Structure formats: C-alpha cells, structure tokens
Amino acid sequence: HKASSSITRFPLIPVRGVPLMNYIANNWDNIWAFCPDPSDLLIATYPKAGTTWTQEIVDLLLHNGDAEACKRAPTPVRSPFLEIVSPPPIPSGLDRLEKMDPPRVIKTHLPFQLVPPGFWENKCKVIYVARNAKDNLVSYYYFDLMNQSQPEPGPFGGYIHKFMQGELSWGSWYDHVKGYWLEREKRNILYLFYEDMKENPRREVERIMKYLDLSVSDEVVSQIVELTSFKNMKENPMANYSCIPSPVFDKSISPFMRKGEVGDWKNHFTAEQSKLFDEDYEKQMKDVDIPFRTLI
Ligand code: A3P
Fold first, then answer.
1. Å from CA of 136 to ligand 1 middle
2. CA 20 to 30 Å from 272, out of 78, 94, 234, 257?
3. pLDDT tens across 164-205, in order?
4. Model confidence, pTM
5. What is the fold, at CATH topology level, of the domain defined by 18-284?
6. Residue 111 — left, alpha, or beta (φ > 0 → left; ψ -120 to 50 → alpha)?
7. Does residue 53 have its Cβ closer than 6 Å to ligand 1?
C-alpha cells in the first residue's frame, strides 16, 4: 500500500563504483562541489552504524546539554544529510545546508573517497562511527525492509551476500570502515565504535567533547548520556525519525529505533551463515587491523 506515488524503491547507480540511490547519483556533480566552512563538522558513517545517536550527542554538547534546545527540530533538519536528494518537494541536503549558517553539523554516508574535497581542504573536523559488520548488516536489513525508498532487501540469506559483495546502497562496508581508518591520523578523524558507545557512553561522550574543544560540566555530561540512551531517544519525536511519513518509513515493519544493542546478529545468523561470513571477513579485512567487537 503506497500512499504517495513519488515514493518508490529507487534503483542504485554506481558513482565511481559505489552504488548510490539514483537521485544522489544524478546530482553527483553538485554534491562533489559542495564546499563546507572550516567550522563545519562532518559525522560520517556506513548506514546504520550509529549516526543518529552521534548526531544527538553532538547537538547536545553544542547546546550544553539543553534538552529543549535540541528539540527545536527533527534530526535531519538540525543536522542535514549532505548527499540526500529526495523527490520534490522534500528539500535536498544541499538545499538545507545552503539555508543554514556555519558552524553546521553535517551527516554523510559517503565512503572516504567520495567525500567532497572541500572538507579536507578546509580541514573540517570529522567524526566517523563504525559498527561491527554483523550487527551493522542486521540493522541495515530491517532498515531496508521498512524504508520504502531503499532497494528491496530480499531474504536475509541473500542479503548477507549483497552485503559481502558491496552491493547495498553506499557500497561496501569493508571499504567504508577501512577508508576512514587508514586516513584517520592524517586527516585528524575521530574514529569511534558503536560498541564502545554502548559499553561506556560517558567515556565516548567525553572523547567527542574533547575532540570538539568543548568543555561541559560532569553534570551536563551525565545529562547528555541520559538523554541519548536508546530508551530516551526512542521516545523523543525529534530524535526518533517519526518525522519521516509512514509511506516512506513503514513503521508497521520496523521502527527506526529498533533494538539498539550489540550482538543482535546472534538472533539472525545461522551457524553456517556466520561461518561463511567470518571466512569472507578474514579475506576482506586481512590488510587492516581494526579492533571491531561483535559482542561486549
Ligand atoms: P538497530 O537497528 O540495531 O536497533 P543510524 O542512525 O546510523 O541509522 O543507526 C541506527 C541504529 O542505531 C539502529 O540500530 C538504532 O536502533 C541504533 N540507535 C539509535 N539511537 C541509539 C541509541 N541512543 N543507543 C543505541 N543505539 C541507537
């Protein structure tokens, strides 16, 4: 049942080998030409790695933990999604950014090599959040089931293969996490892990605070940890994506704030699927040593 005819599962078109939603691919030159201000912050992730959570933490840090100030608008309005292009009349990420004054907090799912070069020329700060492959895959699977603008995920078994082959929107998880990892020192990228955030959110909020050269009181840090718990964000209409209408995000299939845990992959992968995935993972990740944890 489609309430809006303009919403459809958009096909993917490769941009320099990375499959992107057709609307994004067709607007690629404008996205690549985007030039941020040096004061802008980029939050980069592979889809479903903890983007929204990090956006909320950053907004709260920038507003000294003021919960009301951070309810001024939904996440994608407060912190625009750089490359997103939706069917009109929905404003694109670039449209939103144009109407905002720096410093802006910009979200992207682009892999390192597709980040507009202006970010590096202007030495913008970049926070990258990575999540272990198996949980990231499961979260993406539910997202693709419910988000009617993403390609049909098909059965879970086949989805695992698409993930391993880098055929999902925004391409290969393996290339994504490696791309930013290898550049993190040279480009002063703060590289975070979803699992660390779950394990000790306070420590990670403080790391973000220091990276942003902010200093908020211990009390405010505690408040931010509390406001950005899974439970509180799930109930916060300005942070839980209830702003996206139901023909696009079909909440009868899955909520955006789905589970928010480490290790949910165990409830989805069979022993055989897990073995096959791990064998392939060894090969794809053999050239780097990124300390991912699939359980905490
Ligand atoms: P699950 O599908 O595993 O529940 P993104 O924002 O990058 O799209 O990532 C979404 C994932 O992060 C979802 O994972 C979502 O539930 C989880 N998430 C969002 N806010 C969270 C929070 N405050 N704490 C823990 N997980 C959170």
1. 10
2. 257
3. 999 999 999 999 999 999 999 999 999 999 999 999 999 999
4. 0.97
5. Rossmann fold (3.40.50)
6. beta
7. yes
